[in-house]
Amino acid sequence: MAKIGIFFGSSTGNTEDAAKQIAQDLGAEATEISSTSEDEILECDYIVFGVSTWGAGDLQDDFDDFMGTLEGMDFSGKKVAVFGLGDQENYGDTFVDAMGIVGKAVKAAGGELVGTVATDGYEYDASEGEENGKFIGLPLDEDNQSDQSADRIASWVSELKKSFA
Q1: Among 51, 62, 44, which residue's Cα sits nearest to residue 5?
Q2: Residue 50 bridge partners (DSSP)
Q3: pLDDT tens for each residue of 68-95
Q4: Of 37, 38, 49, 161, which one is least surrounded by beta carbons within 10 A?
Q5: How many structural domains is the chain composed of?
Q6: What is the pTM of this model?
């Protein structure tokens, strides 16, 4: 059976909560990025990264610390999905930028990004997480649209299962 790994960085618990829900829906485990290794990630057949955006488009601290390792990894032949948390009202010009930063690093390292999401239902000005009119992964906004997170996660996981099949 294929091994799915979910790796996240969380400062307030919101990204961790989302990671645990995604892990439960995928029948996998969620692991903090700060307590994992390159080998643990690369032994997975399918990988999901979860990261939140802080300040004016910055990575969450644990992910920021891990980026040097991530950028040196080889994701060739790997399907990778990314989800990101952000605040589209107060930080509409950097909404889920961290998701874009991580996703672009994965692509540069040979990974195949899966799990794009339409921008419908989101109101923001700019995002590094958007490419060709779609988000490169699942954006969640626990500050302004927390009532939509469960449905968004369920829908995204359903699509991931097809991509990971």
Answers
A1: 44
A2: 8, 83
A3: 999 999 999 999 999 999 999 999 999 9
A4: 37
A5: 1
A6: 0.97
